[in-house]
Write a structure and sequence with these properties.
The chain is α+β, with helices and mostly antiparallel strands. It has 5 helices and 3 strands; from the N terminus they run αβββαααα. It binds zinc ion. The site of zinc ion has 8 residues, from helix 2.
């Protein structure tokens, strides 16, 4: 195992043992969403406060399950706090590309984004980059994705409320 993989493993373990932003927010005004990964038994609830400018002011999560699912949730909350919804959607999209999950129609564009991300070793993604090793364990990809998909649901909920 090389040094970078060691570092990534430490980041994942640290977020699992000392989860950031654990807790709840009162709903309303917060938006909430729940996610379940039945394959592994992972559960995540996310609470979001979005200000009128579309910035995530506060985010909390609760959950239980394997270390990858809980660590990914902790890393996710840290990564999206104080970001705009547009920036967050961009990060979710990059995360899915890193996890080899293809959703867009335009696969060429995804390949370009992936090449760019690999070229800079996912450095623009901060601690989220630590999760890239999960790709080598296909059964764990759903564990890593759970918090991000649950966040996406919460953002859709926020869109509906706004209209
Ligand atoms: Zn899991």
């Amino acid at each position: 195992m090389n040094e970078l993989e060691d570092l990534y493993r430490e980041i994942i373990l640290d977020h699992y043992r000392n989860p950031r932003n654990r807790g709840v927010l009162s709903v309303p005004p917060a938006i909430t969403s729940e996610g379940l990964n039945p394959l592994c038994g992972d559960e995540i609830s996310i609470y979001l406060d979005i200000d009128p400018n579309g910035i995530v002011q506060e985010i909390k999560f609760q959950g239980r399950g394997c270390s990858i699912s809980q660590s990914s949730a902790s890393i996710m909350t840290d990564s999206v706090k104080n970001k705009s919804i547009g920036e967050i959607l961009d990060l979710i999209s990059k995360f899915k590309i890193m996890m080899n999950v293809h959703e867009k129609q335009d696969e060429d564009e995804e390949i370009h984004v992936k090449e760019d991300l690999i070229a800079q070793n996912y450095s623009s993604m901060g601690e989220v980059a630590a999760l890239q090793g999960v790709v080598r364990f296909p059964v764990r990809i759903k564990c890593a994705l759970l918090a991000w998909n649950t966040l996406l649901e919460a953002l859709k909920e926020a869109e509906v409320k706004k209209d």
